[in-house]
Amino acid sequence: MSRTTSYYDLRDALTQPDCPVCRLMARDSERYLDSLLWESVNDPGVRHNLRQAQGFCHEHAWRLSRAGASLGVAILMHDVLGSVLKAMESARFQALSARSRRRAHESLVTRLSARAECPACIQARQKEEIHLSTLNEHLVGEDGLLAAYEASDGLCLPHFRLALAIIREEAVFDALLAAQRTVWGRLAAHLGEFIRKNDYLFRDEPWGEEGDSWLRALGALSGAKRDTGRA
């Protein structure tokens, strides 16, 4: 079976903390935004898509706040802001229409609303689908990722749901389900030990792997922090 770049990326990510797909998506987003800033600021298609989206979503907008990005961000935001200002031209307040019972200026609200999704979100979702498909394809079999998966932090709950939704083979379903139960069973045991050691009767016991289990549990159920790993 041929191996794609995503296979090797997943294999490496499984050796790191947190959900491997969350980790890879964070990395992919950083690469996309870097490429956008350094190579595509003046690309007409990129500028058009960004105007349609009325800029970036909250998460990706603030990820652009980085050293050396100021000029690129200024150029992109100047373009988007110009589009927003144009939509506001000649806008006037009007009372409720007797016929439709809607405020006539609701058309302004529509013009100020995004007509497309944040382009960074679109790219992230495409990469997410690739990584989940790769995990599905290479979990079991020769050089499969199952052993590495069982030893890792596994998928977060949101990505586990998405992974289950695309599985078409019973063997892959059974393997992923068993591996995830192993991963989360281990985490549940660490949480139990963390809680026990916070009892004053056991406070003198040294901390082990359970020390950061509360952080890992947050990531397991809600998705990893939006960076390339925990600090």
* Number of continuous helical runs: 11
Strand content: under 5%
Low-confidence stretches: none
Which term fits the overall shape? globular
- Binned, the helix content reads 55-70%
Q: Care to describe what's here?
A:
61% of the residues lie in helices and 0% in strands. With 231 residues, the protein is mainly alpha-helical. It has one domain. It is globular, with a radius of gyration of 23 Å. The model has no long low-confidence stretch (mean pLDDT 88).
Task: Please supply descriptive tags for the structure shown above.
mainly alpha; about 230 residues
Write the layout of secondary structure elements.
Blueprint: H1 5-13, H2 20-39, H3 44-52, H4 58-63, H5 70-87, H6 106-111, H7 119-138, H8 146-151, H9 157-166, H10 170-197, H11 213-222
Question: Brief overview, please?
Answer:
With 231 residues, the chain is mainly α.
